[in-house]
Amino acid sequence: MKVYTKTGDKGVTSLFGGTRKAKSDQIFDVLGTLDELNAQLGFVSSSKNKKIAKIVLQIQNDLFELGAQIANPKSVDKKASTSEFESIMDEL
What digits encode the pLDDT tens for the residues 56-78? Predict the structure, then answer.
C-alpha cells in the first residue's frame, strides 16, 4: 500500500478543500503552529486536576475545528467564543 501521492513534488500541496498552495505558504506555518500548540496542550491535559484537563480538552477540540476551517475555508463557519475563553481564564 502506497501512502504518498506524488502530487506535492513541485513545491505545491493541497489543502483539505482541494485548493493547491505553495508549500512555503504562510497557511502551513499557521497549521503547524496550531498542531504544536495542540501537542503542548496534550501534555497539560495530563494534569491530575480534572477541571483543568476538561478545559484543555475543549480548547484542543476548538483548535482542531479552527485548523479544519483554515484548511477548508468553505467548511461550516463556527464562530469561536472569546468571551467563553476569557471567563475560563478569569476563573482559573
Answer: 998 898 888 888 888 887 766 56
| Separation CA 92–CA 89 (nearest Å) | 5
Strand, coil or helix: 12: strand
Which residues 6+ apart lie within 8 Å of 71 measured at CB?
A: 15, 16, 17, 27, 31
- Looking at per-residue confidence, does 78 or 85 come out higher? 85
Burial (Cβ within 10 Å: 0-12, 13-18, ≥19) of residue 56 = buried
C-alpha cell at 16: 483539505
How does pLDDT run across 26-65, given as a tens digit for each residue? 999 999 999 999 999 998 888 788 888 888 998 898 888 8
Grid coordinates belonging to 63: 483548535
Which residue's entry shows cell 497549521? 31
What is the C-alpha to C-alpha distance for residues 48 and 66, in angstroms, rounded to an integer? 27
Read off the C-alpha cell for 21.
498552495
